[in-house]
Amino acid sequence: MNLPNLLTLSRIVMIPVFVVVFYLPVEWSYIVSALIFALAGVTDWLDGYLARKLDQSTPFGAFLDPVADKLMVAVALAVLIEEHSAALLTIPATVIIGREIVISALREWMAEIGSRASVAVSYIGKIKTTAQMAAIVGLLAFPPGNTLAYVAIALLYMAAGLTLWSMVLYLKAAWADLFPEERESA
Predict the structure, then answer these.
(1) What are the tens digits of pLDDT across the range 63-102?
(2) CA 1 from chain center: how many Å?
(3) Which of 163, 167, 165 is nearest to 128 (CA)?
(4) Largest alpha-carbon pair distance within the chain?
(5) Roughly how many angstroms between the first and final C-alpha of the chain, as a whole number?
(6) CA distance 121 to 134
């Protein structure tokens, strides 16, 4: 167990803390849950940076890091869907969660057939993640109906659009492996 892996594990431990804080019947629950989510985002960046800088990448960390990220994002979006109770937020949130499931399955399958590199993280994915994290922090920090919550929803739509775009790029990169009969008949 090394520091990058401990940081990744800390994100998973933060999930129940985040949920409890979010639902506390106190005025500060929104801002504190937003800070917890933001801290999780920082640990996501930091664990990857430290793993590369200290040459401490491990198979366990490579497995757990994306799991921790997807769990935190899915849980945050789930509580936000419930809190806002509006299609305006539910639509981009379900697009983002659905894409994460599709791409996780695609990466797992591609790794199984030895083609994992063809579905590596892209630059678009990094922009998408940044927009998504900023949107979720904003939505957590500001209650439904607040003007800044609408700004965060707009940012979430941008993230959902980038999510779909990056998914198309991943599927395009994997297409020949998904449909080898098309490659053979061409």
Answers:
(1) 899 899 999 999 999 999 999 999 999 999 999 999 999 9
(2) 24
(3) 163
(4) 63
(5) 49
(6) 19
**Burial call 133-152: b when 16+ CB within 10 Å, e when fewer:** bbbbbbbbbbeeeeeebeeb
Residue with tokens 């008949």: 185
Distance set, CA 19 to CA 76, 109, 112 (Å): 8, 32, 34
Task: List the domains of the chain with CATH numbers.
Answer: 3-176 (1.20.120.1760)
Cβ atoms of residues 50 and 3 within 8 Å: yes
For residues 159 and 135, the answer to whether their CB atoms sit within 8 Å is yes
pTM exceeds 0.85, yes or no? yes
Tokens describing residue 60: 């366990």
At what angle are helices 59-84 and 123-141 packed, to 10 degrees?
Answer: 40
Residues 6+ away with beta carbon under 8 Å from 23: 29, 79
Tell whether the model's pLDDT for residue 173 goes beyond 90.
no
